[in-house]
Amino acid sequence: MGHRRRWQAAGILGGAVLALGLLAGQLWLTLHLQWTNREPLADSAIGFNFSCDQAEYLLLEEPGAGPDGHAPDGRAGRAAWCAGVLRELIERTGIRLVRLSVQWDEVEPEEGRFDFSVIEAQLDAVRAAGATANVSIGMKAQRHPEFYIPAWALKGVELREWMDLSSVPVLRERALRMVATVAAHLAGREEIDSWTAENEGYIASHRAHHYHLSRAYVAEVAETIRRADPRGRPVAINHAQHYVFDRRWRDALADGDVLAQSMYPRRNGSVLGRPVVVDIMQLGWLMPNYAYQAREARKAGKQFWVTELQAEPWTDGDARLISPERPSRNLSPETMLRNVAYARRTGAERVYLWGAEWWLFQEHRFGDGRWLEAARAAAAGAAE
For residue 335, which of 374, 283, 288 has the smallest C-alpha distance? Predict the structure, then answer.
């Protein structure tokens, strides 16, 4: 009887070991056969995003200085300073594709009064460097606080958390009028090669009370830009899909001339109270298949771009405190290039890196030129 029980126990244990082995093998196959590990590296054109506000935050403002350390937007020479930083980045990296945003509160500080000095200075720098620009227009733009709505445009608007701002008729009308005016004014600029309707318009902004915009409104922004541009340059709609269950990329594909996505592969987390960095591109079927989306875009006669690719550390603290002596666990110049390889494996025609201001800050403040070198390597196609 005891002998039989031992055989039964051995059988149960053997079955469990076999099941675990099969499960481990299936997991290994899932990870190694997913698109991030098997798709070929595309010959993607490399660009970078640029924000004057972010450049000021990193290069002009001191951490802990409070109001005394703030660089005011209305200071003399601001537009020329912004253009100078942008020109330096283009020349230092060899990158000839730039992505800019028009901030509503900056371009229309008072209703009907437009000031194009900052965006036009940046476009002048782009043209002088022999580069071209994608320009986003709308309520939402790059960087904090994402929604750049002037105070006058919010008069009579009662704001609340998780609000669809495009559902407010008066705000929608004011925004579309601004989009039409800005697009018409900039349409003659030859250095603009494309547009973006809003910036991640579908995404609720955690930086701005989770405000968001509707698909119908973003599509109307895209159509407003098209009507204002006699050259018919493509209008991208960009999304930030982090998990496979989000299907709004299909809306962006249907309504835009270019389907664009944001990619931030390396995320901070904790396990048993210990900080960890998770490469979410290795989560198997949970992650979106951007390579499939690129193929779907091409089937529709359109392109697929990565308009934001993580190329600076993801941090919840003050980024200015990260240095070669206090490096980020989240990203290094080496892992930045691995991110570029992920983006190229999507088959994207263009990949815009996110963090150009950071690369310059690290060199100016700490003498660390590795980030600029990595950007140059990415532009040269060395992100293998």
Answer: 374
Residue where the block lists tokens 């396990």: 271
Contacts of 95 (CB under 8 A, 6+ apart): 46, 47, 48, 89, 131, 353, 375, 379
Beta bridge partners of 211: 205
Q: Which residues of the chain have pLDDT under 70?
A: 1-33, 64-68, 382-384
Contact partners, residue 178, CB within 8 Å, separation at least 6: 104, 107, 108, 137
Task: Give DSSP secondary structure letters for 202-216.
Answer: TSPBTTTTTBB--HH
Report, in angstroms and rounded to the nearest whole number, the Rg of the chain calculated over CA atoms.
23
CB 199 within 8 A of CB 142: yes
Q: 159 in a domain, yes or no?
A: yes
CATH number of the domain that 195 lies in? Answer: 3.20.20.80
pLDDT of residue 15: 54
What is the span of the domain harbouring residue 187?
43-379
Q: How many CB atoms lie within 10 A of CB 130?
A: 10
Q: Using CB atoms within 10 A of its CB, is residue 315 exposed (0-12), middle (13-18) or buried (19+)? A: middle
Query: Would you say residue 33 lies in a domain?
Result: no
- Structural domain total, the chain: 1
**Cα distance between residue 372 and residue 59, in whole Å:** 15
Residue 148 CA to residue 335 CA, distance in Å, equals 32
Does residue 270 lie in a domain region? Answer: yes
Give me the helices (H) in 94-153, please: 104-107, 117-128
